[in-house]
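hey so i finally got around to running the thing on that chain from the lab meeting. sorry it took forever, my laptop kept dying and i had to restart like 3 times. anyway pasting the input first so we r on the same page abt which one it is
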Amino acid sequence: MNGGSSDTRRPRVIVTRAAERAGGLSALLRDSGFEVVEVPVTITRDASDGGVAFVEAMRRLNEYDWLVVTSPEGARRVVDAVERLGLDARIVKRAAVGTSTATTLGGADLVPDVQTGSSLGAVFPVGDGRVLLAVAESAGTAFEESARAKGWIVDRVHSYRTVAVAPEGVDVRSVGECDAITFTAASSVEAWAAVFGNVVPPRVVAMGPQTADALRRVGIDSFVVAAEQTLAGIVRALG
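ok and heres what got predicted. didnt touch it at all, straight out
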């Protein structure tokens, strides 16, 4: 993150996504004329039990009426499990929090307009069957509380966990040399704040409401929320 400023240089944008997930956003930004500085502040790992409970729940997918995922990483792990176990995901209805999650899942029967668990819970139908909720260990409980209130039995299983990591070779001064920063998850906001506090470049873009709430909690009040909660939406918000 070195180099002086220049009137002709491309705008420099920090991508805070986990290293294994940064590629898609970084490519879109570069294609749109931005210089990308990848500063991964989190990594994703199997759940604390090694993913045992998640795999066992997926083996029993035929016992459920709905499969619900709340993040692209969670959706990716569901897809991997379906392929690895030779399952047919079409035997259940699928719900996703947000269009990026739905796309990663390969499609969904229900996606709320606002990318939050509470919004999904609000539009989720009344029923008396079973729901498999595959989420990160740090995920909130808004959806499951709403679904249970509507009559569903919800089995929450942790498909992964997000672990904060301290970026190497990055300091407050180099952050100040950048023009913008993107956050796609509340966990990235919290991990960033643990290292840099509320020091950010002049322009901050949040992927959705939950990420925006996390920014406010750590004392970052000046930001924009992408109108479309996708990677492409983030790029457009920087335009």
